[in-house]
Amino acid sequence: ISAGVTLVDIREEIEWKDTGIIPKSALITFFDSAGKYDTRKWMDDLRKIAKVSDPVIIICRSGRRSLIVANYLLENENYKTVYNVKDGINGWKRANLRTVNF
């Protein structure tokens, strides 16, 4: 992150308010509360901030949703370097890493 890698928080707004967000993260919800998504719209938003050649970090609450999205980017959208935050924002907070209020 300190090197300028794009960090995309795919959670919903209510989750951002609940736990806070990581400074400088891009907030682009992928799945809605019903589990539905609009891949085309989400990709349009992502492409505004990260090219397929740029490394990208994806984070959610626990790492489950972000793993799905990270794999999608690698397998279907030709992104070259995608990182999944394995334990999500929960792990981030357990490690006492910085968050800010949304």
List segments where confidence is low: pLDDT < 50 over at least 5 consecutive residues: none
What spatial order of strands do you see in the largest sheet?
2-1-3-4
Strand fraction: 5-15%
Q: What can be said about the biggest beta sheet?
A: 4 strands, parallel
Give the end-to-end Cα distance, rounded to a whole number of Å. 19 Å
Question: Brief overview, please?
Answer:
With about 100 residues, the chain is of the alpha/beta class. It is built from four helices and four strands; from the N terminus they run E-H-E-H-E-H-E-H.
How does this model look, in words?
It is a single chain. This protein is of the alpha/beta class and 102 residues long. Helices cover 35% and strands 13% of the residues. The protein contains 4 helices and 4 strands, in the order E-H-E-H-E-H-E-H. A 4-stranded parallel beta sheet has the order 2-1-3-4, covered by helices on one side. The chain is globular and about 35 Å long. It starts with 5 loop residues before the first strand and ends in an 8-residue tail after the last helix. The model has no long low-confidence stretch (mean pLDDT 97).
